[in-house]
Protein backbone atom coordinates (compact mmCIF):
# COMPACT_ATOMS: atom_id res chain seq x y z
CA UNK A 1 0.00 0.00 0.00
CA UNK A 2 1.31 3.47 -0.87
CA UNK A 3 1.89 6.11 1.87
CA UNK A 4 -1.02 8.16 0.52
CA UNK A 5 -3.39 5.20 0.61
CA UNK A 6 -2.39 4.55 4.22
CA UNK A 7 -2.97 8.20 5.06
CA UNK A 8 -6.38 8.11 3.42
CA UNK A 9 -7.38 5.12 5.51
CA UNK A 10 -6.06 6.91 8.57
CA UNK A 11 -8.07 10.05 7.94
CA UNK A 12 -11.20 8.12 7.03
CA UNK A 13 -11.08 6.65 10.50
CA UNK A 14 -10.08 3.07 9.72
CA UNK A 15 -8.72 1.24 12.70
CA UNK A 16 -5.26 -0.27 12.64
CA UNK A 17 -4.99 -3.49 14.57
CA UNK A 18 -1.48 -4.69 14.97
CA UNK A 19 -1.02 -8.41 15.20
CA UNK A 20 2.47 -8.88 16.45
CA UNK A 21 2.54 -12.63 16.00
CA UNK A 22 1.70 -12.20 12.32
CA UNK A 23 3.98 -9.17 12.14
CA UNK A 24 1.52 -6.95 10.33
CA UNK A 25 -0.90 -4.11 10.83
CA UNK A 26 -4.39 -4.51 9.43
CA UNK A 27 -6.83 -1.68 8.91
CA UNK A 28 -10.42 -2.51 9.67
CA UNK A 29 -13.79 -0.85 9.28
CA UNK A 30 -17.20 -2.36 10.00
CA UNK A 31 -18.48 -4.41 7.08
CA UNK A 32 -15.34 -4.04 4.98
CA UNK A 33 -12.56 -6.50 4.32
CA UNK A 34 -9.28 -5.94 6.11
CA UNK A 35 -6.60 -4.06 4.25
CA UNK A 36 -2.87 -4.38 4.69
CA UNK A 37 -1.19 -1.35 6.24
CA UNK A 38 1.36 0.71 4.37
CA UNK A 39 4.95 -0.40 4.45
CA UNK A 40 6.22 2.97 5.74
CA UNK A 41 4.27 2.72 9.02
CA UNK A 42 5.47 -0.81 9.54
CA UNK A 43 9.07 0.16 8.84
CA UNK A 44 8.91 3.02 11.33
CA UNK A 45 7.30 0.73 13.90
CA UNK A 46 9.98 -1.93 13.41
CA UNK A 47 12.73 0.69 13.73
CA UNK A 48 11.43 2.13 17.00
CA UNK A 49 10.73 -1.33 18.42
CA UNK A 50 14.35 -2.33 17.78
CA UNK A 51 15.60 0.95 19.15
CA UNK A 52 13.96 0.55 22.59
CA UNK A 53 14.49 -3.22 22.78
CA UNK A 54 16.90 -3.15 25.75
CA UNK A 55 14.85 -0.72 27.87
CA UNK A 56 12.44 -1.93 30.59
CA UNK A 57 9.90 0.89 30.39
CA UNK A 58 10.78 3.10 27.44
CA UNK A 59 9.25 6.55 27.00
CA UNK A 60 8.36 7.19 23.35
CA UNK A 61 6.70 10.14 21.59
CA UNK A 62 5.13 9.59 18.18
CA UNK A 63 4.33 12.71 16.15
CA UNK A 64 1.74 12.55 13.35
CA UNK A 65 0.11 9.42 14.73
CA UNK A 66 -2.89 9.37 12.36
CA UNK A 67 -5.10 6.56 13.58
CA UNK A 68 -2.33 5.40 15.90
CA UNK A 69 -0.84 2.48 13.94
CA UNK A 70 2.72 3.05 15.15
CA UNK A 71 1.92 4.06 18.74
CA UNK A 72 -0.59 1.25 19.24
CA UNK A 73 1.60 -1.29 17.47
CA UNK A 74 4.43 -0.40 19.82
CA UNK A 75 2.10 -0.59 22.83
CA UNK A 76 1.03 -4.12 21.94
CA UNK A 77 4.66 -5.19 21.53
CA UNK A 78 5.86 -3.31 24.65
CA UNK A 79 3.03 -3.02 27.22
CA UNK A 80 5.29 -1.33 29.80
CA UNK A 81 6.19 1.55 27.46
CA UNK A 82 4.84 5.05 28.15
CA UNK A 83 3.79 6.37 24.75
CA UNK A 84 2.61 9.85 23.80
CA UNK A 85 0.98 10.11 20.38
CA UNK A 86 0.34 13.52 18.79
CA UNK A 87 -1.64 14.63 15.75
CA UNK A 88 -2.79 18.01 14.50
CA UNK A 89 -6.01 16.82 12.84
CA UNK A 90 -9.04 16.30 15.13
CA UNK A 91 -10.34 13.40 13.03
CA UNK A 92 -7.04 11.58 13.37
CA UNK A 93 -6.99 12.18 17.12
CA UNK A 94 -10.52 10.80 17.49
CA UNK A 95 -9.57 7.77 15.45
CA UNK A 96 -6.41 7.11 17.48
CA UNK A 97 -8.36 7.42 20.74
CA UNK A 98 -11.04 5.05 19.48
CA UNK A 99 -8.40 2.52 18.48
CA UNK A 100 -6.65 2.90 21.80
CA UNK A 101 -9.90 2.03 23.60
CA UNK A 102 -10.46 -0.89 21.27
CA UNK A 103 -6.99 -2.23 21.91
CA UNK A 104 -7.01 -1.31 25.61
CA UNK A 105 -3.65 0.46 25.53
CA UNK A 106 -3.92 2.52 28.71
CA UNK A 107 -0.30 3.68 28.57
CA UNK A 108 -0.80 5.40 25.22
CA UNK A 109 -1.70 9.09 25.68
CA UNK A 110 -3.17 10.72 22.58
CA UNK A 111 -2.74 14.51 22.32
CA UNK A 112 -4.05 17.00 19.80
CA UNK A 113 -1.58 19.68 18.71
CA UNK A 114 1.39 20.46 16.52
CA UNK A 115 4.66 18.55 16.74
CA UNK A 116 5.79 18.42 20.39
CA UNK A 117 3.66 21.33 21.65
CA UNK A 118 1.21 19.16 23.63
CA UNK A 119 3.84 16.83 25.17
CA UNK A 120 3.96 17.28 28.97
CA UNK A 121 6.91 19.39 30.12
CA UNK A 122 7.69 16.80 32.82
CA UNK A 123 9.11 14.59 30.03
CA UNK A 124 11.81 17.13 29.22
CA UNK A 125 15.13 15.28 28.95
CA UNK A 126 13.51 11.88 29.66
CA UNK A 127 12.26 10.64 26.29
CA UNK A 128 14.03 7.59 24.84
CA UNK A 129 12.75 8.04 21.28
CA UNK A 130 10.87 10.62 19.24
CA UNK A 131 9.46 8.99 16.14
CA UNK A 132 7.62 10.59 13.23
CA UNK A 133 6.06 9.95 9.86
CA UNK A 134 4.93 13.56 9.40
CA UNK A 135 4.33 15.07 5.93
CA UNK A 136 7.63 15.16 4.06
CA UNK A 137 6.83 14.55 0.39
CA UNK A 138 8.67 17.22 -1.67
CA UNK A 139 6.68 19.49 -4.04
CA UNK A 140 7.89 17.76 -7.19
CA UNK A 141 6.39 14.43 -6.07
CA UNK A 142 2.90 15.79 -5.29
CA UNK A 143 -0.17 15.55 -7.49
CA UNK A 144 -3.81 16.59 -7.37
CA UNK A 145 -5.13 13.19 -6.37
CA UNK A 146 -3.81 13.95 -2.86
CA UNK A 147 -6.57 16.44 -2.16
CA UNK A 148 -8.30 13.84 0.01
CA UNK A 149 -5.71 14.28 2.73
CA UNK A 150 -4.67 17.94 2.87
CA UNK A 151 -1.81 18.46 5.28
CA UNK A 152 -1.15 14.75 5.70
CA UNK A 153 1.44 14.04 3.04
CA UNK A 154 2.90 17.11 1.32
CA UNK A 155 5.82 18.56 3.25
CA UNK A 156 6.59 22.25 3.74
CA UNK A 157 9.72 24.22 2.73
CA UNK A 158 11.24 23.85 -0.74
CA UNK A 159 12.59 20.38 0.03
CA UNK A 160 9.47 19.11 1.86
CA UNK A 161 11.31 18.82 5.18
CA UNK A 162 9.97 21.93 6.96
CA UNK A 163 8.02 20.01 9.61
CA UNK A 164 10.76 17.42 10.08
CA UNK A 165 13.28 20.24 10.52
CA UNK A 166 11.14 21.94 13.20
CA UNK A 167 10.62 18.61 14.92
CA UNK A 168 14.35 17.81 15.02
CA UNK A 169 15.03 21.16 16.68
CA UNK A 170 12.17 20.81 19.20
CA UNK A 171 12.99 17.19 20.06
CA UNK A 172 16.26 18.23 21.70
CA UNK A 173 14.32 19.55 24.68
CA UNK A 174 12.61 16.20 25.28
CA UNK A 175 15.19 13.57 24.33
CA UNK A 176 17.45 12.19 27.00
CA UNK A 177 21.17 12.20 26.12
CA UNK A 178 21.61 9.30 23.71
CA UNK A 179 17.88 9.25 22.90
CA UNK A 180 16.81 8.59 19.32
CA UNK A 181 15.10 10.58 16.63
CA UNK A 182 13.50 8.22 14.09
CA UNK A 183 12.09 9.76 10.91
CA UNK A 184 10.45 8.81 7.65
CA UNK A 185 11.71 10.68 4.55
CA UNK A 186 13.07 10.10 1.04
CA UNK A 187 16.58 8.89 0.26
CA UNK A 188 17.28 12.15 -1.61
CA UNK A 189 16.26 14.27 1.39
CA UNK A 190 18.48 12.29 3.73
CA UNK A 191 21.62 13.11 1.74
CA UNK A 192 21.47 16.73 2.90
CA UNK A 193 19.40 16.43 6.06
CA UNK A 194 21.97 14.20 7.79
CA UNK A 195 24.34 17.20 7.89
CA UNK A 196 21.64 19.45 9.34
CA UNK A 197 21.02 16.95 12.12
CA UNK A 198 24.73 16.93 12.97
CA UNK A 199 24.60 20.72 13.34
CA UNK A 200 21.68 20.33 15.75
CA UNK A 201 23.72 17.98 17.94
CA UNK A 202 22.64 14.57 16.62
CA UNK A 203 24.93 11.67 15.75
CA UNK A 204 23.95 9.95 12.50
CA UNK A 205 22.44 6.51 13.07
CA UNK A 206 21.98 5.93 9.32
CA UNK A 207 19.20 4.32 7.34
CA UNK A 208 17.18 1.93 9.52
CA UNK A 209 14.82 0.61 6.85
CA UNK A 210 13.49 1.02 3.31
CA UNK A 211 15.34 2.28 0.28
CA UNK A 212 15.13 5.00 -2.38
CA UNK A 213 11.94 7.04 -2.25
CA UNK A 214 10.84 6.07 1.28
CA UNK A 215 13.32 5.38 4.03
CA UNK A 216 13.44 5.43 7.81
CA UNK A 217 16.45 7.14 9.33
CA UNK A 218 17.74 7.40 12.86
CA UNK A 219 19.99 9.76 14.82
CA UNK A 220 21.02 9.94 18.47
CA UNK A 221 21.02 13.13 20.49
CA UNK A 222 24.54 13.66 21.80
CA UNK A 223 24.96 14.19 25.53
CA UNK A 224 27.46 17.02 24.94
CA UNK A 225 24.98 18.88 22.71
CA UNK A 226 22.26 19.16 25.33
CA UNK A 227 23.62 22.13 27.32
CA UNK A 228 24.42 24.14 24.21
CA UNK A 229 21.23 23.29 22.32
CA UNK A 230 18.59 23.80 25.02
CA UNK A 231 18.15 27.35 26.22
C1 LIG B 1 1.71 10.35 6.64
S1 LIG B 1 0.48 10.48 7.90
C2 LIG B 1 1.14 9.28 9.06
C3 LIG B 1 0.11 8.59 9.91
C4 LIG B 1 0.66 7.46 10.80
N1 LIG B 1 1.75 7.87 11.65
C5 LIG B 1 1.10 6.30 9.97
O1 LIG B 1 2.30 6.10 9.83
O2 LIG B 1 0.23 5.59 9.48
C6 LIG B 1 1.00 12.03 8.61
C7 LIG B 1 0.20 12.50 9.82
O3 LIG B 1 0.81 13.69 10.34
C8 LIG B 1 -0.21 14.55 10.81
N2 LIG B 1 0.34 15.93 10.92
C9 LIG B 1 0.50 16.85 9.93
N3 LIG B 1 1.06 17.97 10.43
C10 LIG B 1 1.25 17.77 11.76
C11 LIG B 1 1.79 18.56 12.82
N4 LIG B 1 2.24 19.82 12.63
N5 LIG B 1 1.83 18.03 14.06
C12 LIG B 1 1.36 16.78 14.30
N6 LIG B 1 0.85 15.98 13.33
C13 LIG B 1 0.79 16.46 12.08
C14 LIG B 1 -1.32 14.37 9.79
O4 LIG B 1 -2.57 14.78 10.29
C15 LIG B 1 -1.25 12.86 9.52
O5 LIG B 1 -2.11 12.16 10.38
Task: Give an overview in words.
This protein is of the alpha/beta class. The protein contains seven helices and ten strands. Helix 4 (90-103) links the parallel strand 5 and strand 6 (108-112). Helix 2 packs across helix 3. It is globular. Mean pLDDT is 83; it is low at 29-36.
Q: Tell me what portion of residues adopts beta-strand conformation.
A: 25-35%
Radius of gyration, taken over Cα atoms and rounded to an integer in Å = 16 Å
Examine the secondary-structure arrangement and name the CATH architecture: 3-Layer(aba) Sandwich
Q: How many angstroms does the end-to-end distance come to?
A: 42 Å
Helix/strand structural class: alpha/beta
The CATH class is identified as Alpha Beta
Average pLDDT, to the nearest integer?
Answer: 83
**Helical proportion?**
25-40%
What is CATH's topology name?
A: Rossmann fold
List the helices and strands and how they pair.
Blueprint: H1 3-11, E1 15-19, E2 24-28, E3 35-36, H2 39-51, E4 59-63, H3 69-77, E5 82-87, H4 90-103, E6 108-112, E7 127-132, H5 162-174, E8 175-185, H6 187-199, E9 202-211, E10 214-221, H7 223-229
Parallel strand pairs: 4-5, 4-7, 5-6, 7-8
Antiparallel strand pairs: 1-2, 2-3, 8-10, 9-10
Helix pairs in contact: 2-3
Bound molecules: S-adenosylmethionine (SAM).
Amino acid sequence: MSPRAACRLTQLGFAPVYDYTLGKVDWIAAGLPTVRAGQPSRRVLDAVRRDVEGLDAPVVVEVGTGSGAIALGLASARPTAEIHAVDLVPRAVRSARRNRRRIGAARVHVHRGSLLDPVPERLSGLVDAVVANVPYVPPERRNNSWDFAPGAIGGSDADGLGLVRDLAAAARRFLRPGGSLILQMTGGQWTHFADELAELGYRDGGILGGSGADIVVGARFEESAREVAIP
